[in-house]
Design a protein that fits this description.
With about 260 residues, the protein is mostly helical. The protein has 13 helices and no strands.
């Protein structure tokens, strides 16, 4: 009975992706499933048309730089908290959890007003910084687990051998927490690539990311290219998660036991 229940859940989760995949490889310009004839024309249009390529490029650029910003900030906060345990470090850590406690529309509206006052509204830099700041919660929590897993014996051994705090961090701490840092960066990048609301309210349609491009395409008339773009999202996410699973234990990183 338990296996049947799990199979039902798996089917309900996978079925929408199967339908979208079918539409993306269908030759028809209309939504038809199953496809009457197979064609890669929509993927070809997605990967050759200048507007689609520009949107993909912007999304990837924003995701990578935002991931670096979020991960760097999270690493710095966790390192100071681990080294000093000061109240200010704890306050900053708690502050970093704030973005995930507020509705995205509130964050987007606040950021929109802020960048309008600064004069950066409609600029890609505003979207990059906003994603880096608002998505910092993920690497903050994940990297914290990495520091929590460090043992005093390893640190004391390095210090006994004469290593300076900088050397201890570079040669001992950083290699041990690297899987947590990589996971935090990857999750920020994945969410950034798929994020629509904040990017739209900060940059409007001036900086057209891939989600905004998809929305515009749906508004002005449906095209199966949207299904192809959606499958690109899925392929990118699955590829990143599979790559992470080769170097890290994702289940353990999220604090879940494999045994249940």
């Amino acid at each position: 009975m338990r296996k049947l229940y799990l199979w039902i859940i798996a089917f309900l989760l996978i079925a929408p992706f199967v339908v979208v995949l079918g539409v993306s490889v269908g030759a028809s310009k209309n939504i038809t499933f199953p496809p009457e004839a197979l064609s890669a024309a929509w993927y070809e249009e997605l990967l050759t048309e200048a507007e689609w390529l520009a949107a993909i490029g912007r999304s990837l650029l924003i995701a990578v730089i935002a991931g670096v910003i979020a991960t760097t900030v999270a690493l710095a906060i966790n390192y100071v908290l681990w080294r000093t345990g000061s109240r200010f470090a704890k306050f900053t850590f708690a502050l970093g959890l704030g973005p995930f406690l507020l509705p995205p529309i509130i964050l987007a509206l606040g950021a929109s007003l802020f960048w309008a006052e600064v004069g950066w509204y409609g600029r890609i830099e505003a979207t990059i910084v906003s994603h880096g700041v608002f998505l910092v919660t993920l690497p903050l929590v994940i990297i914290a687990r990495g520091f929590a897993a460090l043992t005093d014996e390893v640190i004391e051994a390095a210090q006994t051998l004469g290593a300076t705090p900088a050397q201890v961090f570079r040669t001992v701490v950083l290699p041990l927490i690297a899987p947590y840092v990589a996971t935090g960066f990857a999750l920020v990048a994945i969410i950034s690539v798929n994020e629509y609301l904040i990017a739209n309210m900060i940059s409007g349609f001036v900086v057209e990311t891939l989600p905004i491009k998809i929305f515009n395409n749906v508004r002005y008339g449906y095209s199966p290219v949207v299904a192809a773009a959606s499958m690109l999202f899925v392929a990118l996410t699955v590829t990143i998660l599979l790559a992470l699973s080769r170097i890290t234990d994702l289940v353990a990183l999220f604090g879940t036991s494999k045994d249940g």
